[in-house]
Amino acid sequence: MGYEKFNILKSTTVPLSIENVDTDQIIPARFLKATERIGFGENLFRDWRYNADNSIKKEFVLNNDTYNGKILLGGKNFGSGSSREHAAWAIYDYGFRCVISSFFADIFRGNCLNIGVLPVQVSSEFLNKIFECVFKNPKTELVVDLNTQKVNIPCLGISESFDINEYKKENMLNGYDDIDFLTNMKDTISEFAKNTPL
Amino acid sequence: MSKTLFDKVWDSHVVHEITNGPDVLFIDRHMVHEVTSPVAFLGLKNRNSEVLFPEKTFATADHNTPTINQHLPVKDPLSANQLKALEENSKLHGISYWGLGHEKNGIVHVVGPEYGITQPGATIVCGDSHTSTHGAFGAVAFGIGTSEVEMVLSTQCIMQPKPKKMRISINGKLSKGVTPKDVALFIISELSTSGATGYFVEYSGEVFREMSMEGRMTVCNLSIEMGARGGMIAPDNKTFEYIKNREFTPKKEKWEKAMKYWSTLYSDENAIFDKELFFDGNNIQPMITYGTNPGMGISISKGIPKAENQDGGVKTYLKSLNYMNYNEGESMLGKKIDFVFLGSCTNGRIEDFREFTKIVKGRKKACNVTAWLVPGSHKVEKAIKDEGLLKVLEQAGFELREPGCSACLAMNDDKVPAGKYAVSTSNRNFEGRQGPGSRTLLASPLVAAAAAITGEITDPRTLY
Questions:
Q1: ipTM surpasses cut 0.90
Q2: Fold classified for A8-193
Q3: Which residues 125-164 of A are in CB contact (within 8 Å) with B?
């Protein structure tokens, strides 16, 4: 499934200053029953957004009109737990294109990169600065530039670099996916398969 | 050059290396279940693509399946639809399908090893983070996302950067009442849920050498809970004995040939790991978790740690205790519980039922406790009956359910109600994991059995 190309993203943010946000919070298992990739955004952070009777939990940041934007800020160890790509789909479907944290769980990070959500890992000091700015002024905009691999906080005039491998960077800049790459080397793969020991 | 066990398996499966990018990794065995596969099959259809090697993919239904009255139609229409999609997709692409009612049906990570699909030195993936279980056999096994499920279906490869390598060595002897689950919960409590992120772990030392294959599976299963992509243990005679003569393991000359490869699977003496950790097995006690991630575990007789001692994240820590309705410093022993769950890909194997039965034998289940005893597969279910465990369990007031993931993840009918406490042998105690508002305490089958008998957190060593 294609995704929007990612180049430079200038946006306000939604600050979720909690550590160890796991994939069961991002999307609980009972909402994984679809056989198509539609409607997952509605259930993003379902049990933090809604009470059991489906009324809104006003104190949760996604329900606070003060904050909006295409960038989700999360505490350390974001996306731990299950391999469900549905967590990344829910984030994308809700409208986020980038998650910034000081540490990401492995499978979640890979899933994001595969579907067009940019996971940006910054130092905890830099992340704290972003949180502070956003809490002080919710209209704070960040600039995430994939080309130069930099996150900029314009109002403070500071920026920090982030890592991404060259291959994935090219993919995201162009909206390519791994399946196209692999499909083009099927002959090599079939040849390789003949010599595997198992 | 000296290589680690992980290097040997990974490197021999690299089809192509991309400079400053991931490796193209060949996958020997692919397991699929109903939850993370339908969108991948849809992707194949949209790209007008075929499954490249249908004989290397195996499908089973487990997450959505009910654990009682499996002969009746599945009540939840969404679950039924997802199960039907897997059946149809498997049929369309010529993939082995062990659906509900099939004699080989069970949890994907339980049936894989049972039928010999899991083999040493193989690369094994599944759209499920607990695929790390199969590392117990010396396989490189890990969970993948749905996009990658589609990649494996259409090209038998995925693209992954090679993880770093960590070795966790534990020597010494485990004391009575300390199980592989306690070893795993202990390691996670030491490392935290992100302590091994970016690494692939090899477990080594006397404790793992002495462990049964079931125990090794429990440990490797929980590797993901400390952030590791996977965990593995070098195959030995115990491994080879376990897999010999299983349906999908090689036979005769093929077995001999495979043995030649398998006997090379160990970390060379001078192999370099990016990180090495050492623990003393003599010091590990029965464990229990008190919070909302698997790293929040303590020895059962210790008090709940103070927030101020937590490494950063005091707010998150207190949020977690608040969710559990526990306070800093409290003892876990004697806390009332409502549910007990024995099962899952972590502890749903025959050895787990044997351990549980040892404690409950000749005793009675506490009347305030609802217990769900769920075998990981029909094969486990049959063994429980054949070994006479069922009779003992029934005399103690327990019932046996039918195989499936059950109460591990609140995706089927087995859900723990809001506010209730469940001692679970499964793998995650995240908020709402066992049902919205549910509170999970992760523990071994022995601790679960002790809680089921007394209705409260109890040191199982007092019931021997």
A1: yes
A2: Aconitase; domain 4 (3.20.19)
A3: none
